[in-house]
Amino acid sequence: MSDPAAKAAVEERAALLLAVRRAGVRDISVMRAIETVPREAFAPYKFRDLANRNLALPLGCGQTMSRPADVGRRIEALRIGKGHRVLEIGTGSGYGTAILARLAWEVVSLERFETLAIEAAPRLAALEIANAAVLHADGLAPEATLGEFDRILVEAALDAPPAALISMLSPGGTLVYARREPQAGEKRARQRLIKVDRTESGEPHETDLGPHSLGPAASGLAKAL
């Protein structure tokens, strides 16, 4: 490859995928989805030169674009199949939405910040992703008319998922979120990545997937910050 810039971009992309694997992501379909979604298409313009690094990047409205390795861990935990309907709480830039859309039959993503929701939709359209919809909505109090979902991903830290979300999870479905666990004497609560499997009988079963980090969840609608 004679173009130094193109060569550097390929090397950065390879290093990014290696970082995702080192974080423990092994599912081939998840790795392929991450490989085929250009993160630079979702990163703020002034940070696009950092898009192919395993770094969290600032977004508008005081939000953050998660590290690709963390996105990969959350999505792998869902075990998404081609026939699954997925609900994402917290669209952000739309990067995670695009990866989910590569894996699922349908993705509905709810974003409380109107500005972020408006900006994410054309990014997905530019990649010709037709099976994902971004809605300006309160993800912690979703409308029941959205129906049931096979998989739910909460892109935020909670003490526990709201009953409204659990009720939208189909029997046999899976929900993934980061749980806050306050520690005595510590100002900032530690977090654990939690997978909730709803059994066919409707009972939830939790699995702790280890330390994680996400911004705190907030309820209600907002235009911007």
Walk me through the structure:
With 225 residues, this protein is of the alpha/beta class. The protein has a single domain, classed as Rossmann fold (3-Layer(aba) Sandwich). It is built from six helices and nine strands, in the order H-H-E-E-H-E-H-E-H-E-E-H-E-E-E. The strands form two sheets. A seven-stranded mixed beta sheet has the order 5-4-3-6-7-8-9. A two-stranded antiparallel ribbon has the order 1-2. Strand 4, helix 5 and strand 5 form a beta-alpha-beta unit. Helix 1 crosses helix 3 and helix 2 crosses helix 4. The protein is globular and about 60 Å long.
Describe the SSE topology.
Layout: H1 4-22, H2 28-36, E1 57-58, E2 64-65, H3 68-78, E3 85-89, H4 95-103, E4 106-111, H5 114-126, E5 132-136, E6 149-158, H6 163-167, E7 169-181, E8 190-198, E9 204-211
Parallel strand pairs: 3-4, 3-6, 4-5, 6-7
Antiparallel strand pairs: 1-2, 7-8, 8-9
The amount of beta strand, in percent, is 25-35%
Q: Give the domain tally.
A: 1
The helix content, as a percent range, equals 25-40%
Number of strands: 9
Q: What would CATH call the architecture?
A: 3-Layer(aba) Sandwich
Intertermini distance:
44 Å
Lateral arrangement of strands in the main beta sheet: 5-4-3-6-7-8-9
How many DSSP helices?
6
Short description:
The protein is 29% helix and 27% strand.
